[in-house]
Amino acid sequence: MASTYEEDLKKKNQQAAQEQQKSAQQTVSASNNALKGLSANTQQNLANYQTYKPSDAVMNAQAALNNVNTAKPGAYASQYDAQIQDIYNKIMNRQDFSYDLNADMLYQQYKDQYQLMGKQAMQDTMGQAVALTGGYGNSYAATAGNQAYQGYLQQLNNKIPDLYALAYDQYNQEGQDLLNQYDTAMGAENAAYGRYQDQYNQWLNEYQLANDAYNTERQWDYSQNQDALAYWQGIAQQENADYWQGRDQAYQTAMAMLQAGQLPGDDMLYAAGLSPEDAETLKALYAAQAKASRGGGGSGGKAWTLEMLDQFNALYATDPIAAAALAAQWTSIGYRDSHAQGANYYAGDAASRKEQEKFDAETAAAGSGFLAIDRAINAAKKVEEDAKKIEEANKKKNG
Does residue 369 sit in helix, strand or coil? Predict the structure, then answer.
């Protein structure tokens, strides 16, 4: 079944609204998932404007449109259709003209009348003829009487063409009457349908006006919502940038404190993105490095075994900070030769760079725009080169 004009408009409006809302939700959701450091007010406004909510003016326009749609005229129903069909059938099924004297009542009246007058004339003529012959009947009287009777029958026959013409005219008049009735019924039908069309066109005009008013109001209201959403997205981006800048500064400060042997407070660690456990490990690592550096790192200490080197390399590949802690532990129990010191240094440096890489990755995901991606790539290359140096040094030592 073909859709109507108003149904097409309704579908078009619904599709446009759904596409706009879906696009807005996808855009805002993707952006919000990467943002950090947003204030409660900013988060609330982003949530408020992320999903479009029609204003009272839009809802009123929608209600007005619904009211007009409810008043839509029903399908046209003809009150003359049965009458028109009946007359039409009579016209199309009408028999051709035929004339039957015996079925013609007027002819029967004329027949009775002329036969009566013929008999009367026959009797009068025969009576007159008998009187002329002295009261005796004779053949002349009978012949004269019969002639008088036949004369009236001839007059009756002379009426037949007139009666035929009269019947034919009556047949034609009946046909014309049916045509006139058909024209009258069709005229009434056309007038009724014209009134229905006027009513429907008036409703359609009102519907189009209400629909245009609704679309205009909704588009303006939606644009206002999008403007507000864009404004708060800008605020969110700024707060996000401030957050990552503050975290970068906090990280640098925390690492400096750890290198100096100081443990930052919980607030500082949280701002720097470091856990208390990582901070303790890094503090111990830097302390071990400083101690090894003061000890000179000569060859008096014990060298790492191949098993220890394999253990360190395997742990370093998955958790540099844990590997650094392990190297610091070995250093504290007498493994102080150049290989141990070098391993501690590389592990400590890698632990710091690993923390920086984590920070950079998080910052990149948030789209802060101030990252040094090359730094993470170069750090990874440096770790790989250092591991090769340690392996080559152990090979030479164990010759």
Answer: coil
N-to-C CA span, the chain:
91
Query: Quick check: 248 and 89 in contact, CB under 8 A?
Result: no
pTM: 0.50
Determine the distance from the C-alpha atom of residue 392 to the mean position of all C-alpha atoms in its chain, rounded to a whole number.
66
Please write the tens of the pLDDT for every residue from 305-321.
Answer: 778 888 888 888 787 77
| CA–CA separation, 318 and 51 (whole Å) | 42
User: How far apart are alpha carbons 220 and 204 in whole angstroms?
Assistant: 24
- What DSSP designation does 103 have? G
Note the pLDDT of residue 164: 92
Q: How many CA atoms lie within 13 A of 381 on its CB side?
A: 6
Q: Which pLDDT score, from 0 to 100, does residue 399 have?
A: 53
Nearest to 278 by CA among 325, 318, 314, 235: 325
For residue range 160-203, list pLDDT tens digits in order. Answer: 899 999 999 999 999 999 999 999 999 999 999 999 999 999 99
- For every residue of 257-326, DSSP letters joined together read HHHTT-PPPHHHHHHHT--HHHHHHHHHHHHHHHHHHHHTT-TTSPPPPHHHHHHHHHHHHH-HHHHHHH
3-state secondary structure (DSSP) of residue 120:
helix
What's phi and psi for 135, nearest 5 deg?
95, 5
